[in-house]
Each structure stands twice: as structure tokens, then as C-alpha cells.
Amino acid sequence: MASDIKTLGKRGEIVIPKKIRVAAGLDEKTRIKIIRTSRGIVLIPLKKSFADFAGLLGSGGYNKKELDDAMWEIAGMG
Fold first, then answer.
1. 36 vs 71: which has the higher pLDDT
2. Whether the Cβ atoms of residue 66 and residue 75 lie closer than 8 Å to each other
3. Which of 17, 30, 42, 62 would bridge 26 by S-S if both were Cys, CB 3.0 to 4.6 A apart?
4. Among residues 34, 59, 62, which one has the least CA distance to residue 46?
5. What is the mean pLDDT of residues 5-33?
6. What is the CA radius of gyration of the chain?
7. How many C-beta atoms lie closer than 10 Å to residue 58's C-beta?
């Protein structure tokens, strides 16, 4: 897992290092969902529109804690 430490800019911006952008397939037009969790912040590149995720957290989906735990497990921080 690639990681890096960056400083938050004056307007709240951060620069994702090129090696991480390339590995994740990110380009300047990539939309990124930013989620604040109890353990920190998660950035999720959106490859689909929000309509594709409709109902994910609704009935039959995962609750917020399960989703939070799963994201951190995937990130290797669970």
C-alpha cells in the first residue's frame, strides 16, 4: 500500500502524489468522494455516477458502521 504525508494548503487542498494517482488510475477529471469517518478521512475515486450507488445504504445495504469498518479493512488499517 502506497502512502505519503502532505501538508494541507491554505484553501484546504492537498496534492495526491503522482505515483499514487497513476497506480489508482486518477486523472485531473476524476471525481472523488470524501468521507469523514470515526477513524479519519477516506477518499474514494468515483468511476460511476452517483445514480449507480442509489440505495447502497438503504434497506438491504450496509449500515454506516459496517461500511466504515470495511473501508478501513480494505485500506489495511482495520
1. 36
2. no
3. 30
4. 34
5. 90
6. 14
7. 8
What's the confidence (pLDDT) of residue 14?
93
C-alpha span between 72 and 47 (Å, rounded):
20
Going by C-beta distance under 8 Å and a sequence separation of 6 or more, which residues neighbour residue 20?
2, 4, 26
Beta strand segments in the chain, E: 31-37, 40-46
> In angstroms, rounded to a whole number, what is the distance separating the alpha carbons of residues 45 and 24?
8
Cβ atoms < 10 Å from Cβ of 24: 14
Q: Give 78's Cβ-side CA count (13 Å radius).
A: 12
Q: Confirm if 41 and 70 have CB atoms less than 8 A apart.
A: no
